[in-house]
């Protein structure tokens, strides 16, 4: 069995961070979402993985490499234009051949992994298995209508009047019958080859498509609020550890905090669940629950909670607590005490700023 990860999206809803970074590389609990997906597939026993890439392909290649550091073999599959999930499957034929495969969207975070799902698919003669999850806003997703016996009657992409609240999570398993499906469907009104149409083709053709309704949490990390929610959920599941060379001086660090190599906590309070990255310095500061601070960051004379701070950034001398914030790479957030006193900022396109 092989794996296929779709990582070609531009991440427009996460701008301005995604002007300079791939959305799949933004970390949740100090690990890029794409790495979490790779590890989830690997832990299910699949070590040959194709990664479909688009404009952010060079960044993904640089970060992931050949996959050897994650115990897998990565093959990159360029997608020249974002023509739909079924199109991404279609262009992956040379890599996948007639092998069964699991397809995973590269910006999804799911509780519990997929080992059980892979095992179920391997032990049955289903042509496809799809993962569903009850959601509050089904109009934003592909939605499944089930028959009384639990089988799938119909799939609809982003319906105005959803027949159910069961959304396609973004994890699918297929056998070789998917090739006839993706070659038979036509572009949708939005000009894309929809994976829901391909799966519907399988259903209409009498193929066996088995639905699995996921009971744990699942987050599509497409927006900043989703990233923060995923970060909080993953942090709650971490087993806290403190690296042997981490330094704690005159500080209170509770038992739910993870300190990575070379982290320094000085004259500060850190409350978990929280993770502090490699060689990051927290000094004269408060770091509250559900916060992830990546590597080589300095936090000085600040308070911050339920936030994500990316690598090589500096937060200093702030007189208000940062909360529900997503701070990009090499960013500097500080207070200016010189006169005349005024707010000074450089704000990129599609940014949001709240002033208190």
**Count of DSSP-assigned helices:** 8
Main sheet specs: 7 strands, mixed
Structural category is alpha/beta
Strand order of the largest sheet: 5-4-1-6-11-8-12
Number of domains: 2
Q: How helix-rich are the residues, as a percent range?
A: 10-25%
Architecture overview:
The protein has 356 residues and is of the alpha/beta class. The chain has 2 domains: 2-221, Spore Coat Polysaccharide Biosynthesis Protein SpsA, Chain A (Alpha-Beta Complex), CATH 3.90.550; 238-334, Hexapeptide repeat proteins (UDP N-Acetylglucosamine Acyltransferase, domain 1, 3 Solenoid), CATH 2.160.10. 19% of the residues lie in helices and 30% in strands. It is built from 8 helices and 29 strands. It has helices spanning 33-43, 57-64, 85-90, 93-96, 115-122, 178-184, 195-204, 224-237; strands at residues 2-7, 27-28, 31-32, 48-53, 73-78, 101-105, 108-110, 128-134, 142-146, 152-157, 166-174, 209-213, 218-220, 247-249, 252-253, 257-259, 264-266, 269-270, 274-276, 281-283, 286-287, 291-293, 298-300, 303-305, 308-309, 314-316, 322-323, 326-327, 332-334. The strands form 7 sheets. The chain has a 7-stranded mixed sheet with strand order 5-4-1-6-11-8-12. Strand 9 and strand 10 form a beta hairpin. Helix 6 packs across helix 7 (195-204). The radius of gyration is 22 Å and the shape is elongated. The mean pLDDT is 86.
